[in-house]
Amino acid sequence: MYELDCATVIPGCQRVIRAESQAEVIRRAVAQARQFGVERITPSMMDSFRSKTTETTNATSH
Q1: 61 in a domain, yes or no?
Q2: Which structural domain, as residue segments, surrounds residue 42?
Q3: What is the share, in percent, of the chain residues with pLDDT greater than 90?
Q4: CA-CA distance, 56 to 33, in Å (whole number)?
Q5: How does pLDDT run across 12-41, given as a tens digit for each residue?
Q6: How many domains does the chain have?
Q7: Which of 33, 49, 51, 62 has the fewest Cβ atoms surrounding its Cβ within 10 A?
């Protein structure tokens, strides 16, 4: 599982985006950015999405 705290990249966003893959987290982050009025996703924004996406461990698995 991967997650991205949206506020660390998109000002005003209060979501934590979670998905099974880093690619899906980034896809959702791009969609979220567009909802916040970002018309152009820059290479530096994509780099931020990648660098701030973290892999999480499932606390319920043993």
Answers
A1: no
A2: 2-55
A3: 85
A4: 22
A5: 899 999 999 999 999 999 999 999 999 999
A6: 1
A7: 62
